[in-house]
Amino acid sequence: MFLTKAFLKKSAVLFLIMVILLLAVAACGGGAAPAAAPAEKPAEAAKTEEAPAAEAPAAEAKEVTLTFWTFVDAHTDFLQKQVERFNAEHPEVKIKLEPTTIAYQEMHDKLLIALQSGTGAPDLVDIEIAKFGTFLRGDIQLHDLTPLVENTKKDVVQERLAPYQLGGKQYGVDYHMGAVVMYYNKELMDKAGVDIDSIKTWDDYIEAGKQVKEKTGAWMATAETTDKWTVSPVMQQNGGGVYDKDGNLILDSEANVEALQLLSDMMHVHQILGIAPGGTHHTPDYYEMMNAGDKTASVWMPQWYMIRFKDFMPDLKGKMVVRPLPVFEEGGMVTTMGGGTGTAITKQIDPAKLDVALQFLEFAKLTRDAQVRFWTELGFDPYRLDVYDDPELKNNDEYFGNEPVMQTIKGMFDRLAPEYNGPRYPEAQIQIREKIAYGLFEEKKPAAELLSTAQAEIEAMQ
Fold it and tell me: Do the bridges between strand 62-70 and strand 124-128 make them parallel or antiparallel, or are there none, so unpaired?
C-alpha cells in the first residue's frame, strides 16, 4: 500500500512537470491551440481585430495613343475635349490624341497615298463628304463602323448616315445634320408686303419673288455659278441627286431635270434670281451685298451657314428668320442635307487599339451628350432626335428673329430627303460645281442637256 501511494505521488509530480514544459514550449512557439477554443467569430468581426492588410495597388490605366488627321481646327479642339471627357469616365483607359491639321486638298491627297501604299495613314481621320467616295473604291481601307450606328439606331436620323455607307456598311460618322433651310430677310419681305409663312410651294416662292422685285427692286435670291449650293439641294429635295439608294448613278434623272428647270426659269423666265457676287455664297463681296439688307430677300443654304451670317453679316441680326424649303408639291420634302465630314478609322490602326478607337468614336460623336455639344461647341445641328428636347436646343436665337431655330429644324426631319454617296461622287460634284451650275445660269443651257453630258462623262470613268 505504501509503495502504491509513493508511486502515485511520483507520477503526479512527473505529470505536472510535463504540463509546465508543454506550456513553456507553447509560449515560445505561439503555435499551440489554447486548451479551450472559443466559438468561431464572424468573418467581419475577425477582420476588425486583425491588423489592416495593405491595399492592393489600383490597376494602371491602359494608355492608348490615337493619331488623327483633319483639315478643320475646330474639329481638333472638339475631339481633344472629348478625349478628356472619355478618360474621366473610363479610368481603365487613358487616351492620348495626336492630331495633325492639314490643308483640305493636301490632307485628302496624302491620305489616299498612305492608304494605297499601305503605310503612313493615321488611326482616325476626317474625310469631307465630297471626297468620301474616293475612299469607297476597290479594297476599302476603312474599318466598318456599322456596330457603332446600330447601338444608336433608334435615336439617330438614318438619312444622315447614308452618305457614308456602301453595300450596307458604315464607314464614317458626321459632325452635323446639315439640314438645308431657307433664310429669309423678314424686314425686306415685310417691306414688300409678303408674309413669309404663306410661302409653302416653289410656285408660292416665285410669286413672292415677283412681288419683292416689284416693290423693293431686290432679288428674291442669288444663284451660285461656281459651286453646288443652289442646285444640289433642290435636286435632292425633288428625289434626285447623284446616286440612288441602290448605288445607281442618277444625274440625268427626271427628278434632277425638273429641279434644274425650275431654277433656270426662276432666273431666265421669272427674273427673280441674280448671280451671287463672286459666283458663290462664300465670298467677301457676297457677304457685303447681303449685309446691306436691301439687295436680296432670301438664300437657301445648310444650317451651318448660320455661322457665316453671324460672323460676316452682323447688320442682319434680328432681321433673318429660318424656314423650311418650299415644296414641289403638297406633302413633299421640306429639307435635305448639305455638306459634311465623316470621321473614319483606317485599317492601318494597330489592332490592339481598335476596340478603344471604336469605343471613343462612339462616345465622341454618337452619344446624346456628344450631339448636344455639336450645337453648344461647334454650332452644328445634331442628328440624334432625342437631343432636341435639351434646354440648349430650345433657346431663342436673337440673330434669327429671336426664334427657337433648332426647334424649327427639328420639325423638318420627318420630311427629309436623303443623299446617297458612291465611288464617283467626287467627280460628280466637280461636274455640278464647274459645268452644270455655270452652264445653267451663265450660259442658259437646257437642264436635260447639262445633266445628260455629265452622266455620260461619269459613266466613262466607271
Answer: parallel
- Give the pLDDT confidence of 309-367 residue by residue, as tens digits: 999 999 999 999 999 999 999 999 999 999 999 999 999 999 999 999 999 999 999 99
Neighbours of 189 (CB within 10 A): 24
Pairing of strands 320-323, 93-101: unpaired
Quote the Cα angle for 151-154-156, to 5°.
85
CA 349 to CA 346: how far, in whole Å? 6
Average pLDDT over residues 195-212: 98
**Residue 19 belongs to what H/E stretch?**
helix 2-29
* Whether residue 352 sits in one domain with residue 316: no
Identify the DSSP state of 392.
Answer: G
The mean pLDDT value for 280-297 works out to: 98
Regarding whether 184 and 139 lie in a shared domain, the answer is: no
Q: Is 318 exposed, middle or buried (0-12, 13-18, 19+ CB in 10 A)?
A: middle
The dihedral region occupied by 249, where left means phi > 0, alpha psi between -120 and 50, and beta the remainder, is beta
Which pLDDT belongs to residue 10?
Answer: 39
Reduced to 3 states (helix: H, G, I; strand: E, B; else coil), residue 332 is coil
Report for 41-45, 58-62, 239-243: range of highest mean pLDDT: 239-243
Q: What is the CATH number of the domain that holds 130?
A: 3.40.190.10
The verdict on 246 and 306 lying in the same domain is yes
Asked, for residue 47, whether it belongs to a domain, the answer is no
Give the domain-ending residue among 350, 373, 393. Answer: 393
In a domain, 78, yes or no: yes
Task: Determine the Cα–Cα distance for residues 355 and 361; give it in Å rounded to an integer.
Answer: 10
In a domain, 36, yes or no: no
Question: How is residue 299 written as a grid cell?
Answer: 438664300
Residue 60 CB burial class (10 angstroms; 0-12, 13-18, ≥19): exposed
- Tell me the three state secondary structure of residue 294: coil
Range of the domain at 118: 62-177+339-393
Q: How confident is the model at residue 462 (pLDDT cuts 50, 70, 90)?
A: confident
Q: Is residue 303 part of a domain?
A: yes
Number of domains present in the structure of the chain = 2
Burial of 338-364, coded b for 16+ CB within 10 Å and e otherwise, reads bbbbbbbbbbbbeeebeebbbbbbbbb
* Gap between the Cα atoms of 150 and 114, Å rounded: 29
| Cross-strand pairs, 127 | 342
Same domain flag for 373 and 253: no
